[in-house]
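In the previous lecture we treated proteins in isolation. Real proteins rarely work alone, and many bind small molecules. This record shows how such a complex is specified: first the sequence, then the SMILES for magnesium ion.
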Amino acid sequence: MTTTIALAGKGGTGKTTVASLVIKTLIAQGADNILAIDADPSANLNLALGLPLEQTIGDIREDMLDQVNPMNGNLNGRPGMNKFDYLDYEIEYALVEGDHVDLLAMGRPEGPGCYCAVNHILRDIIDRLGRSYDYVIIDNEAGMEHLSRRTTRDVDVLYVVTDPTVRGVVAANRIAGMRDEMDINIKNAYLIVNRVAGELTPALQEAVDQVGIPLGGIIPADPQVTSMDANGQALVNLPPDSVIVQAIESIVQQTVPARQPG
Ligand SMILES: Nc1ncnc2c1ncn2[C@@H]1O[C@H](COP(=O)(O)OP(=O)(O)OP(=O)(O)O)[C@@H](O)[C@H]1O
Ligand SMILES: [Mg+2]
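The predicted 3D structure, ligand included, written as tokens:
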């Protein structure tokens, strides 16, 4: 069984940072079969993971559509190859293979025109690919409306990440409130308050208490993250005793169900 973990939240709250360090934590716990999906069109999870990125699913879709013969719908130069097989092959090729974690970047959702049929095929392929991994981590673009729609139908753990402001927490609550309207089955959702300096203020604590999902944890502001990002270093290389890594370890321990052996 695959455990799927997704990140949502307003822009710049720390989704990609948390996603990369959840992956680091899972690897430290012994996981070695993880799929990271970057569902943000301006893909940058690869940088936090220290992995190269050459091709996105969006690129693959555009390339394929360029090859469709408008007269008969067949793929030019590939007689007998159907679109599913073509996409399946290309996605396998675009998968970036790292140590313990592979990465797939979704890229741009769609260009002009409706490619619903292609998107449907893509979701089926990615869904099936995900099932061959122990963990799938999905880093989403800001907001909730995009959440995983192109990648999966089932999410075991959703983290809604917020900055440490009352306005941010109110926005996170709104995002969390949208989860039931989606055609995605979300088992458990948690709020994460990121970049906290010291304790939560009473006003923040009150706002957090009013959120419709439980608090998964608080992550301190960590100057090491600031300096590593300023220097373009991969966050997965943060030392294991850094405050942010320790905070995320404890969140994962309390919110991600332990895998059944076998
Ligand atoms: N706990 C933290 N301590 C210090 N800096 C942090 C922390 N979390 C995130 N940051 C910084 O905040 C910025 C935004 O983080 P990140 O890119 O993870 O957010 P995001 O939610 O993925 O943004 P986007 O919506 O653009 O995808 C980065 O520059 C990162 O270095
Ligand atoms: Mg991001």
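Summary for your notes: DSSP finds nine helices and eight strands in the chain. The longest helix spans residues 116-130.
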